[in-house]
Amino acid sequence: MSGQRSAPASAPVAPGASPAGSIYDLGYRHYEGRRHGPLYAAWSLYVESLRSVWGFGRPATAKAAPFILAGLYALPAVVQLAFSSYFAQAVAQGQNIELFAYDSYFSQFYVLILFFCIAQAPELVCRDQRYQVLPLYFTRAMGRIEYAAARLAALATALIIVLVVPIVAIFVGDVLMKPDTFSAIADELPKALPALPASLLGAAGMAAISLAVSSFSPRRAYSAIGILAYILLMEAIPAAIKAVGAGAGWSWSDGLSLLMPVSSLDGANYWLFGSPLPNAFTGNVAAGAYFASALASLVVMTAVLFYRYRRMPA
Amino acid sequence: MGAPPALESGEPMPLIETTSLTRRFGSVLALDVLDISVEPGIIGLVGANGAGKSTLIKILLGLLPQTSGRATVLGMDNLLETRAIRQVVGYMPEHDCLPPDVSATDFVTHMARISGLPRTVARERTAEVLRHVGLYEERYRGMGGYSTGMKQRVKLAQALVHDPKLLLLDEPTNGLDPAGRDEMLDLIRRTGTDFGISVVVASHLLGEIEQVCTFLLAIDAGHLLQSAPISTFTERVPVLSVEVEEGAERLAGALVAKGARAKADGAHVLIVLEDDALYDSVRDAVANLDLPLVRIEQQRGRLEDLFRDAAPVEASR
Questions:
Q1: pLDDT of residue A303
Q2: B179 near A CB under 8 A
Q3: Which of B63, B121, B125 sits opposite A138 (nearest CB)?
Q4: Cystine design at A74: which of A165, A216, A243, B117 (Cβ 3.0–4.6 Å)?
Q5: B221 touches chain A (CB under 8 A)
């Protein structure tokens, strides 16, 4: 390793240094150069956060959870890609095969996204509380809101990557299944493109929910349970009331669907693809309303996260 | 140790200045109309636990707003120019603040970047500063396995890495063994004298302040007790200790009546020795009261003794 040898004899020694202290005396230089402002600090934190979501710069074990969960989420689409020539033949022979589609993939596998958030969101906001690192940030060129925003942006970016990989796999698979590649790309691209805003919304929405909930506890375990409890309760309670309301003929209970955080993201997903809502969406709620409620959830949870950091003692 | 280091080219700007600074936590008054003005140097901030040291530091950093009053750091208002202050101030908190699964190099580099240093500069300065605080091979390992002494060094390094003009150190020797304490104090002294960085050292141990500081601020229950150069205590105010077999209280009373700063302490009377005429006053007072005199001794008492007596002596002036 470099940099660990003892100092060269010519190392500058600070004037007035006592010989007894010479072990450490390799000189100290003042820094007169440029100092960047809060935006640079936020960018640095964003980059560091994005690395730590994936376990880079941490022990090898820290990489297991994010990579396994992201891999599992992409696996069905990748398998479909691997067997695309087989599927192409089968389709050509007139078999009716249900292939994974852009608009319903999130619906089918969102549980893995939820697990990803449960595993990695506490990593971003609990450690600094637990190990009391926050005062070091807040006494530097970084505001509390910038801190929270950088963490949020990093988790959202990580989730975008997770969400987009299987979409790309489906796209490539679908293109390979067709005989004419160029016309296939021209056909498939417009169908796949809504995945970009959909992934953006899905990633930001899930990131905001999981970070807002995690930020209330310095303990990973409690944060993880908190995220799970928030999602399950916010899905289950409106569903239960809706079920009762459907039996009793209440007209207002369908609107409760909009309180469900994951269902809202799912519905917004279909709306962005211009697809009809599948039968799982009960009640008379328009797909566009789910998009609006997903956006509202994103805004509210981001506000909760920022509020939490404004008030956090340091 | 020489005179306090000159920071910039001799502009007479106070390092820290507060006027009527008050901070209230509910019904508790943590800082009570505090007026402080200190010049650059190594400043010892002494007080018992709960005296208001950490509160003062947090207010200077803008982590806590004051209830009333003003505070400036290097001429900048703590509430209006918080960011500008933070760029030139390094803070070492009292508590643990190091994530265990990150190496010291990664952590300090990251903190340097949060302070606004470009990436390569952040790396270079991290290496330099970690060497300065005496951390070598260990710096590539996770900090969870560090000893308390190593952790304190990393905490100092992260406060120094962006080359601040002022370091605020909150109980930097907490939890260190005697050898570790001496090393930490030596580091602080060299940081202050060799690098021209002003340092505020908060501590409840006067002995430490005495070793490294050039200026003493003593607060108690949010009040300012003392604010003077250390030399005032250890050099320029020698103390005459007069031991009598009985009547120490009466002797002290007689001397105070003559305008001396005196205080009875058991069988001793401690008198601040302002000029040689004091010897005559003591002789006359002892003779007048007809007291059995044991000995007269000039002390250059330790700061600790003086400090303990400082408030009563002040009061009896």
A1: 98
A2: no
A3: B63
A4: A165
A5: no
